[in-house]
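Dear U.,

For the methods section draft, I wanted the exact inputs and outputs in one place so we can describe them consistently. I've listed the two proteins in the order they'll appear in the manuscript figures. Please don't edit the token lines directly; just add comments below if something needs changing.

First protein:
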Amino acid sequence: MTHNDCIFCQILAGNAPAAWVVDDGPIVAFMDIFPLQPGHVLVIPREHHQYVTELDSYTRGLLMETAARIATAMRVIHPAGTDLNWVINDGKAAWQHVPHVHLHLLPRSGRDNLSLINRMATRFMRKPDMTAFEADAARIRAVLEHS
């Protein structure tokens, strides 16, 4: 099931740009075009569902397993280690801006002063840097290919 007005479904259909991290199988991942931090990855099911509870248990598990593989790759890229927020905003009142299940993998450091509330509201004001997204996606892909 896809929805023409869903940006993630448009990305999956090849009608919108993405810097792919994982692009095969029922779960895919790409760089967030409005990142809260450099390296911000979105992990989504290929099939359109708004709520996590709409996913069957296999797909929910695969979403987490795919995210875990990517998180491991992110930690390889940053040898000092990468702390991550794993965030799922489940519904509009929970700040789900795109009504398609998605898990944010958000790199963190003790020095980033990132306030999720403030940054979520202002992140759409910045122009995306597709070159940087492609470079981040390529580094993660390289690690995933060898794991």
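Second protein (the one for the lower panel):
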Amino acid sequence: MKLYELTENYKVLIDMLNDEGSEYLDSEAINKELESIGDDIEIKSENIVKLVKNFEAEVKALKDEEDRLKAKRQATSKRIDGLKQYLQFNLERLNIKKLQTGIFDLRIQKNPDAVVITDENKIPENYKKYEVKYDKTAIKNALKAGEVVAGAELKSTEGLRIK
């Protein structure tokens, strides 16, 4: 039986118990039915939680692998930069601006102009970009204190906790 079917059966049983005409039901039969549904729901719920735990472990393993690969990519990029700088340094020492090897053409050439900010305080406002961030903790505290914060409201939700 599927979890949604168990939930529906449980809801029907609860509705029957709440119905005024359900007095004819035997309390022993009701308890037996509740226990069988409860066991099924417990078993199905436990199996779903096991699936959740497996997926959580997989997500953690993938995140760990992402971190490992990111670190490896960054280290490899540093090696590339170091080798390029080493090659450029030695070509410049020998005053070589162009070099043709068996399969590569090397050139030392000017890069596009780059802006270097020497004093951030002296840059005019029209050249600055700002990122807007909201202090949600302060907004929450203000709303809880009864203040009106235009454009914001408190929202209460429910979530499943697995222990």
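Candidate sentences for the figure legend, describing the second protein: Residues 49 and 162 are 8 Å apart (CA to CA). The longest helix spans residues 27-93.

Thanks,
Y.
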